[in-house]
Amino acid sequence: MYNSSVIGGSVSNSGSRLYIYEVTGLGSSNGSEAPIRQSGSTFVTVPYGRMAEETRRIMRMGGKIVSIRAAGDYSTASATQSAPAATKPMAETKAKAKKPGANVPINIYKPKTPYLGECVSNEPLVAEGGIGDVQHIKFDLSEGDLTYVEGQSIGIIPEGTDDKGKPHKLRLYSIASTRHGDDVDDKTVSLCVRQLTYKHPETGETVNGVCSTYLCELEPGTKVKITGPVGKEMLLPEDPDAKVVMMGTGTGIAPFRAYLWRMFKDNEREANPDYRFKGLAWLFFGVPKTPNILYKEELEEIQAKYPDNFRLTYAISREQQNSEGGRMYIQHRIAEYADELWSLIQDEKTHVYICGLRGMEGGIDEALTAAAAKSDVNWEEYRRDMKKAHRWHVETY
User: Fold this and answer.
1) For the whole prediction, is pTM greater than 0.85?
2) pLDDT by residue (tens digit) across 105-142?
């Protein structure tokens, strides 16, 4: 998917780290997992993925968290250490723990020094009878140091010059493969690219997009200038119990393919023994016609194999009708499931991702506004809080 708005940033390995809470004010008969005195401090070791849950538990029991630090960051504090001495490290460490993307690879290759990656394959994705041209393009990375994670993008610099004789500027595309690549050998990266075509507003002539046409017509063996990776807006949570709601149109499926392959593909699960997805993934996918359902066979294979963990909901605009008799777009599907989605969204383990055409955002907000209002909740404010908590992720164009 082409993406004009990805920002650089830095994915964290904190999901596997342990953090030490210094807690005061807890009694000894409250079911705590650690020895606790009514006065003084108690130290509780907590995995990163359970920090929010443990914080709520401590607060319910009347405890006060004096400090939080990463295990091993500095020498272990004694139980008699005064709270003020740990106040500053607590604030700093807690902020770092909440911020995703601390260790994501960023801009390993820059526009002035791009990586030259060979096109390994260039396969059509739209079935017969579909609309437009979409290609799945795989590049070899074995001759360089380009690494990435799910949810990031790479830049492509097309050959040739613009109408002013200057080199073409790079275009960003969402990565459609997992960090291990389609062959699960850490040697490739893949893109999902639609050839852009439009009518010239004055002449009516058909115009082809520069970079998308360049990519869609690539011959295997061609060397391509690649930059990046960039982006931290669309990072997948490391929590294997997370609930991941994905709303995408067309080539907006690219990052979602990477998520789903990481979660469910057999060879990916073998390559990631420390990550076994046990939560819920729900994909809403909007396309014009059935032949335009990209990766359809594989998506439906995952759905059949993991029915309790993966839900797949299509919105096929030229074949299905919404409740008012018009075309069925993705926002209409969201409206149909708005109450269920609102219930899901209130779970702090739920992350929502929107990728594709910007036009769907208004309808999605409208549907969730109505659902949240039934609980006397202002959706705009709630969505803003989700964004701050890194649970609402949008990449549209």
Assistant:
1) no
2) 999 999 999 999 999 999 999 999 999 999 999 999 99
pLDDT at residue 17 in the model: 65
Query: Where residue 251 falls among pLDDT bands split at 50, 70, 90?
Result: very high
The domain defined by 243-396 carries CATH number 3.40.50.80 = yes
Catalytic residue among 2, 19, 21, 173: 173
CB 142 within 8 Å of CB 187: yes
Kindly tell me if the per-residue pLDDT of 81 is higher than 80: no
Task: Confirm whether 205 is a catalytic residue.
Answer: no
What would the two tokens of residue 386 be?
């989700």
* Residue ranges covered by each domain of the chain: 14-98, 115-230, 243-396
Q: Which of 14, 67, 174, 212 is catalytic?
A: 174
In 3D space, the residue among 367, 372, 379, 307 whose CA is nearest the CA of residue 343 turns out to be 372
173 part of the active site: yes
pLDDT in tens, 175-230: 999 999 999 999 999 999 999 988 888 888 888 899 999 999 999 999 999 999 99
Separation of alpha carbons 190 and 258, rounded Å: 10
Does residue 355 have an active-site annotation? yes
Tell which CATH architecture fits domain 115-230.
Answer: Beta Barrel (2.40)
Active site residue 54: no
Say if CB 72 and CB 52 are below 8 A apart. Answer: no
List 192, 211, 216, 355, catalytic entry: 355
Length of the chain: 397
